[in-house]
Amino acid sequence: MEDALPSGVARVSLRRRLAPLWPWLIAMVALALPFAVDSFSLFQLTMVLIYAIAILGLNVLTGISGQFSLGHGAFFALGAYATAILLEAGAMPYLLTIPAAAILCLVAGYLIGLPALRLKSVHLALATFALAIAIPEIVKLSIFEHVTGGVHGILVGVPPVPPVLKQAIGVDQWLYFLTLGIGFGLYLMSCNLADSRTGRALKALRENEVAAASMGVATSRYKAVAFAISAMITGIAGSLCALVVQFVAPDSFPFQLSIALLVGLVIGGIGSLPGALAGGVFVVFVPNIAESVSKGLAGAIYGLLLIAIIFSNRNALGRH
Amino acid sequence: MEQLVTQLIDGISAGSIYACMALSVVMIYQAINHLNFAQGEMAMFSTYLAWQLLQWGLPYWVIFPAIVAASFAIGYAVERAAIHPLRGASELSHVVVFIALFSIFNSAAGFIWGFGVKSVPSPFGEGPLFEGALLGKHQAGILVVTLVLVAALWVFLRLTRVGLAMRAAAANPRSARLVGIPVERVGALGWGLASAIGAVAGMLIAPIIFLDPGMMMSVLLYGFAGAVLGGLTSPLGAVLGGLTVGIFEKLVEAYVPVVGEQLKLPIALAVIIAVLLFRPSGFLGQKIVQRV
């Protein structure tokens, strides 16, 4: 018993000393993976990153400002369609379509955020749910068909690898690194946002709206800004998705996509920005795993798993 | 003019379906102060149970009460198993559990009965109500059942002690508990009743839109629209809301050129959002005042 304490202390300090190494380890694995796996796995990994970015966007809304959205698939779709349509028109090189999609989603998010912020809890859930269901229908409308391709969607050309890197890596690897780089940039941006003046105002709103307002936080403006930034990040994910999948159609963005993003957010942990990655893994792989257990009952297994996860950490999600 | 009358009657027929579903939405909202996104799937599951009993040759009027009772039990059990343990958890946890329930019921129905479309007979018979009538027998039947349900629900919520307890428990669980209302049991009762009303709606809707695991998706959405339009707290409001949404849908389909037909679903959503923004209490709902 005598020496138990010192060794325990040593173990804790060792763990502490290793803690700063984790990000480097993850970074090394992330950089090495594309050279170690086959192209389908690489595609799946890229999709994990894309969903992680989308969930990061949702996390800015829910984790920082405390609102939530059942309709973020709409912004994902908007970003994807923006990229696909711009490429189809040959308006700009494909790398520029990503910021173009980002700006479009930022504006759309602000415009939708302005009325949405007047709603609370169940009403907000319903309105955003409605948005998620409406988007595929609106895209299918015959009057937009010459732009959106209607139900058939749009094929996006394979984005070329920049000439400098052409010798070293293939298209799949390039898209992976592009997604990784953008995702990392957005992650840093979100961290900074959380620690900024705006971020503190948003957190104050999340904790107590009345108190925040009486401290001089312009509640409506900040809520709309949070919605806009969140929509922008999710829209960037959509834009990357169009480049990676090289196809967009109304059925690529069913309302289940919005649901999947929300589920990924909850699984990864609300307010935990690195958790977005775990959420992305869940969104991409868990439905497949459920299907491999039983094809017919995949949905039921998925549902039971969700309930189990919610039950096991219901306090982590905050209380009423 | 004749075309307008036809459209109006079509609208009322469709609206009575939405009204029925909206009633179930109001019921759950009165019980838990939240919407259940799995409501439609639970109703669909009950309807499959009814279809199964029909296949086994039981008469409809035996099946009807049996299914209503079974659905009550399912709703009650779901509350006990999945919702009750979440007491005090955040809104978002509840939403995720609703999503999980949605997935479970949808997948289970598909697994047991397959994803093919099945037809369900109407208990009221086929054809028009009388010679030359625009309203079908089944549509008239739905309207009558819906009105009976409204009356029953209104009596239950307004005139019985249990109904009062339920409203109190949803509006302010803490105070309700302090005055001795068994809030949890009342909540489970509300789930059971909502599930039973959903089953009635499902059985009445199935002869019109046919039975398949995805049948309730849009119906639930129109039901939400109707309930929100009516004010979420009032059964009568839900029915008026549901009928309005139905009529509105048919009028747009008929009179808005080019896109009217394709815009049916977005219209339901536009109604929801417009009402939420400009008149959150709907036709007959209570104004919600929050104390801070």
Give an account of the 3D structure:
The complex is a heterodimer of chains A (320) and B (292). Chain A has 320 residues and is mainly alpha-helical. Helix content of chain A is 73%, strand content 1%. Chain A contains 14 helices and 2 strands, in the order αααααααβααααβααα. Chain A has helices at residues 4-18, 21-32, 39-65, 73-89, 94-116, 121-140, 145-148, 171-195, 197-207, 209-214, 219-245, 255-268, 275-293, 298-312; strands spanning 154-155, 247-248. In chain A, strands 1-2 form a two-stranded antiparallel ribbon. In chain A, helix 4 (73-89) runs antiparallel to helix 5 (94-116) and helix 13 runs antiparallel to helix 14 (298-312). The longest helix of chain A has 27 residues, at 39-65. Chain A starts with a helix and ends in an 8-residue tail after the last helix. The mean pLDDT of chain A is 85. Chain B has 292 residues and is mainly alpha-helical. In chain B, 73% of the residues lie in helices and 0% in strands. In chain B, helix 2 packs parallel to helix 4 (91-113). Chains A and B meet through helix 6, helix 12 and helix 14 of A and helix 4, helix 9 and helix 11 of B.
Briefly, what is this?
The complex is a heterodimer of chains A (320) and B (292). By secondary structure, chain A is an all-alpha fold.
Task: Write the topology of this structure.
The complex is a heterodimer of chains A (320) and B (292).
Chain A: H1 4-18, H2 21-32, H3 39-65, H4 73-89, H5 94-116, H6 121-140, H7 145-148, E1 154-155, H8 171-195, H9 197-207, H10 209-214, H11 219-245, E2 247-248, H12 255-268, H13 275-293, H14 298-312
Antiparallel strand pairs in A: 1-2
Chain B: H1 2-32, H2 39-55, H3 60-83, H4 91-113, H5 137-159, H6 161-171, H7 173-178, H8 183-209, H9 216-230, H10 235-255, H11 264-278
Helix pairs in contact in B: 1-5, 1-6, 1-8, 1-9, 1-10, 2-3, 2-4, 2-8, 2-9, 3-8, 5-6, 6-8, 9-10, 9-11, 10-11
